[in-house]
Every structure is written in structure tokens, then in C-alpha cells.
From TrEMBL:
Pfam families per the UniProt record, alphabetical: RVT_2
Species of provenance: Arabidopsis thaliana
Domain of life the protein comes from: Eukaryota
Gene Ontology MF annotations: RNA-directed DNA polymerase activity
Domain Reverse transcriptase Ty1/copia-type, chain residue ranges per copy: 1-88
Protein name according to UniProt: Reverse transcriptase
This protein's record includes keyword Kinase: no
Keyword set includes Glycosyltransferase: no
Xref: InterPro entries: RVT_2
Keywords: Nucleotidyltransferase, RNA-directed DNA polymerase, Transferase
């Protein structure tokens, strides 16, 4: 479900879903505004959204590993966030 609320930057059209076809207008297609599970762009869109949220929350993305975010607190200690997504 993480991929479902992703916004799309690309212009993507799909055929009418099975069971929801308009029999009077079979040539019409659907314009996607949000990503769907299984769409090749979904993981990338989710990652961009997550990255912008973390940056806006005061974290810095590691130059060496894009899955590591750090934030230094006022007392000098650090918060490390390690992102791991398993699609199995």
C-alpha cells in the first residue's frame, strides 16, 4: 500500500479496467493521477516522496549510501535512519 498514494510526474494512460469498461465508449482510456501497484514508476515516485519528506524534516541524505539519513540533535547526538524496502 506504500506505492498507492504516489503522485505521478509523467503522463500515463491505461486501458479501461476489466469490469469497468464503458460499452458505449470502448476506445476511451484512463488518465492516471496516482501510481498503481505494479506500475514501474511507483517505487521511484515513492522514494522521491519519502526523500523530500525526510529532507523537509531536517535529515540529510548520505553521500555514500542513498538509503541512510542522519540528523544531528542540539546535544550533539545523532539520529540515523536506515531505509530498507523488501519487495519479496
Amino acid at each position: 500500500t506504500a506505492f498507492l498514494p504516489g503522485n505521478l510526474d509523467e503522463y500515463i494512460l491505461m486501458s479501461q479496467p476489466e469490469g469497468y469498461e464503458d460499452e458505449d465508449s470502448t476506445e476511451k482510456v484512463c488518465l492516471l493521477k496516482k501510481s498503481l501497484y505494479g506500475l514501474k514508476q511507483s517505487p521511484r515516485q515513492w522514494n522521491q516522496r519519502f526523500d523530500s519528506f525526510m529532507i523537509n524534516s531536517g535529515y540529510q541524505r548520505s553521500k555514500y549510501n542513498p538509503c541512510v539519513y542522519t540528523q544531528q540533535l542540539n546535544d550533539g547526538s545523532y539520529i540515523y535512519l536506515l531505509l530498507y524496502v523488501d519487495d519479496m
